[in-house]
Automatic annotation (TrEMBL):
Native organism: Paenibacillus nasutitermitis
Domain of life: Bacteria
UniProt protein name: Anti-sigma factor
Transmembrane annotation, as ranges: 83-106
InterPro entries reported in the protein's UniProt record: Sigma_reg_C_dom, Sigma_reg_N
UniProt keyword terms in alphabetical order: Membrane, Transmembrane, Transmembrane helix
Domain Sigma factor regulator C-terminal as annotated: residue spans: 219-377
Keyword Transmembrane helix: yes
Sigma factor regulator N-terminal domain location: 72-165
Any one Pfam family match given in the protein's UniProt record, by short name: Sigma_reg_C
Amino acid sequence: MTQPTDEQLNNKLNAYLRGELSEEEIQLLRSELEQNEAFAGQLELLLLGHSPGTSDQHPEAGSGLPVDLQTRIMRRGKWRSRFSVVSATFTTLAAIFVVLILYTYANTFFATRWFGPEAEAIRRVTSDVISFTKPGVIAGNSSTGTTLLTFTSRYELREQIGRNQRSVGYFRENLFFSKVSSRYDWTGGQHTTSFFFQYPKAAADQASQPSSQNGWVTLAKLPEGTVSQLAVSFRHLLTHDEYFAIIDKYDLDTTWFAVDTGVESSLSANHHLLGTGLVFGYAPGVLRYGDDPGFSSIEVNGEGERRAETYLREIQYLIDHSKLTEALMRNNARDPQVRKLTMEERYNYMKQNGVKLYGAVVTGPTKELLKLKQESEFTVPLVGMTDWWNWDQQQASGVEYSY
């Protein structure tokens, strides 16, 4: 059945309005109206007073339509309008539903790390990597949050000067599925540190090994009522107990150890001093000395074997969460050799050769630090930050906040 032309449509509609159609032709027209959008559109124009094919208005044009036909046409227009509204509303609700589903996923499955480390594991691994790779720096308070498909964390970075800890910036971390990005936001945009260490050479090279003494000169010039940080290197690899046998004679705190993990000897061939990005060690104050979920106590200068065992156990924990660990380690590495080194290789080396130290960061009264000059085992002294005396003063004042 061929579709009528526009002229035939106009003629047929006008004939209907003039009452020239038979009952059979009217029934046929009604049937076509229900199936043909063109007919419906033309009749809607007629009902509004427009003559088909012209812009002239005829207010009386709609008067020849039966009431039931007018009602059906108007009802059909209303339903088409309602369908459009419902369709748009459904599309909008569907989009909102999809967003809610994704957000729910981000805050349950993703945020709780069902497909990776849990939030507590993320915090522990990140804290370890910070303190193991940044001499003298530890992770303080942390906060976490989730945006769409992204788990974010922020860790305060702290350093100890004397008895007090000072905030030096923040570490920010984003986890998007298996992709990890991180950055250090130091206070003032930069972090000044003098924590570098010289790896002990073989016995035959000891005589030619350069040894800076400028740190002792600096400490001698600083006033009595101050506390300072000092990085010292060892002429030989020492165990914990060998180190504590020396340092126990002084009123000082050890805040970081530089540990021989197998790659340092090779690195020292190209780098006279090993610092951030090259050095690896740990802050003794943040390790978990026992099964207690909190930090259990340990002798200030002692229990070397227990310290070594705890350190290896923490390295094993990093191995158990290797994906996050290696991603964070690569972000900290400066040298390709360090970037390729895995935590398993470090662990296996220390397991076979023992946990040996070649440097430390100590803090305390400035003149007490100067006394370390008499220890022949300590070399390459490098002074860090200095502050006013806070070593044994009574903490009588509180903290006043802005309000």
